[in-house]
Specification:
Number of strands: 10
Order of helices and strands: EEEHEEHEHHHHEHEHEEHH
Radius of gyration: 17 Å
Number of helices: 10
Strand content: 25-35%
CATH superfamily of one domain: P-loop containing nucleotide triphosphate hydrolases
Length: about 240
């Protein structure tokens, strides 16, 4: 579904992503893990078209179309092709209600009946959001805001959902709930690219994983295999 070839991202003199190449197969959950500053968020922001000047090829094949290079495309055009992102820090609009935030996620769509069906669908995935549909986004708890960010991302009806640090700042019980929902989203046919510092939770759910250090991939493999890898245990899982 998505193949990245020799991706480079620079911020002035800082070389944040250094020739990264990776592949995301249709229907899988692929995770990028690593410490702060490893280049994880920069990589998916480049895929989403949010970083100008990124170098490399970002080859995306939608289920019903031919391969296209996303590099250099505008973010809204990438969303129209079926690639969406839930950003780090949630980035919901605090002065809009839950329902208004969700409808904003469907801004590229004109199928009113389909939007209503998908509103019901996301409310079934996130019952707490239905209960709080009238509340301003800024009044929600951190966990509820993260659920709103996830729900908003799938309102565009994407094929590939990219999630940037969905567990950041959440209590352990909420982390489990969020990862259960990610698994449910994947089981309903969405391909997931997950950027995450919580290596244990990410590797448990991932079909394949890449480990980044200072902008480069240093290790890759099936999630279940990397969970058992002594190098990963030492560096990311507390030994």
């Amino acid at each position: 579904m998505l193949k990245i070839e020799d991706l480079h991202v620079n911020y002035g003199a800082i070389h944040a992503v250094k020739g990264v190449s990776l592949s995301i197969p249709r229907g899988g959950i692929v995770t990028l893990i690593g410490a702060n500053g490893a280049g994880k968020s920069s990589a998916i922001r480049a895929i989403a078209g949010l970083i100008r000047g990124a170098r490399g090829r970002i080859l995306y094949t939608p289920p019903d179309g031919a391969e296209v290079n996303l590099a250099g495309m505008a973010p809204e055009e990438i969303v129209k092709l079926g690639v969406t992102m839930s950003p780090e820090g949630r980035r919901i609009l605090p002065h809009l209600t839950v329902e208004e935030n969700l409808r904003l996620g469907a801004f590229i769509r004109t199928d009113k009946e389909g939007i209503e069906r998908d509103m019901d669908h996301v409310y079934s995935l996130f019952p707490r959001l239905r209960e709080r549909s009238w509340q301003k986004g800024g009044t929600l708890s951190g966990g509820e805001q993260q659920m709103l960010a996830l729900a908003r991302a799938i309102m565009s009806r994407p094929h590939l959902v990219m999630l940037d640090e969905p567990s950041l700042g959440l209590a352990p019980l909420l982390v489990k709930e969020v990862f259960d929902i990610i698994g449910e989203i994947n089981s309903q046919g969405k391909t997931v690219l997950l950027v995450e510092q919580n290596a244990f939770a990410a590797l448990k759910i991932a079909t394949y994983a890449y480990i980044l250090e200072v902008g480069s991939i240093v290790l890759e493999g099936r999630g279940e295999d990397l969970l058992k890898d002594s190098r990963v245990k030492e560096a990311y899982l507390g030994g």
